[in-house]
């Protein structure tokens, strides 16, 4: 038995301690945002936030993240609502600005990589509310164990979406 906190909720899971966090999220907790791409920390499709930092969940043993705050794509709206002090009612009708920007910019193509992309964007904008194009490129390429890969080539659209998300966050949306 391992106890982890995911999207603000404590969850007890029956899994060997070395089970990749990604398997627990998808198979035990039915959180389908994080995707299995490479399984080797080489693509970023499985990314989640652990204590606000992007982590590749495919190579993270579940036992190593007990008692840490794990946020998946599904938890971004609540994360934003908490940061902005929104009421429960407002929070129910609110997306994270990163998600809102991704929708308004129509960023995804096939969509497979985009959960990980939005996780990185969230990490970046929480520490740097107005990143330059160079800083955005760095966040998606050199900040983790590998660049975040998009087989569909949505890289320019992602840069635009991050800038749009920064604008929405600046307005407090
Ligand atoms: S599936 Fe984890 S980095 Fe590719
Ligand atoms: S949108 Fe298809 S892999 Fe990125």
Question: Can you give a write-up of this model?
Answer:
- This protein is α+β, with helices and mostly antiparallel strands.
- It has 7 helices and 5 strands, in the order E-E-H-E-E-E-H-H-H-H-H-H.
- It has a 5-stranded mixed β-sheet with strand order 2-1-5-3-4, with helices on both faces.
- A hairpin with a 2-residue loop joins strand 1 and strand 2.
- The termini are far apart.
- The model has no long low-confidence stretch (mean pLDDT 96).
- Bound molecules: FE2/S2 (inorganic) cluster (2 copies).
- The site of one FE2/S2 (inorganic) cluster has 11 residues, from loops.
Beta percentage is: 5-15%
Radius of gyration: 15 Å
End-to-end CA span: 39 Å
Query: Which strands sit side by side, in order, in the main sheet?
Result: 2-1-5-3-4
- In total, the number of strands is 5
Mean pLDDT metric: 96
SSE arrangement, N to C: EEHEEEHHHHHH
Q: Find the structural class using helix and strand composition.
A: alpha+beta
User: Which range best describes the helical content: under 10%, 10-25%, 25-40%, 40-55%, 55-70% or over 70%?
Assistant: 25-40%
Uncertain spans, ≥5 residues at pLDDT below 50?
none
Count, helices: 7
Shape call: globular
- Which ions, cofactors or small ligands are bound in this entry? FE2/S2 (inorganic) cluster
List its salient traits.
binds FE2/S2 (inorganic) cluster; alpha+beta; 173 residues; 12% strand; 7 helices
Secondary-structure map with pairings?
Elements: E1 2-6, E2 9-13, H1 21-28, E3 47-50, E4 53-56, E5 69-71, H2 76-84, H3 88-92, H4 97-104, H5 114-127, H6 133-141, H7 155-170
Parallel strand pairs: 1-5
Antiparallel strand pairs: 1-2, 3-4, 3-5
Helix pairs in contact: 4-7
One FE2/S2 (inorganic) cluster binds next to loops.
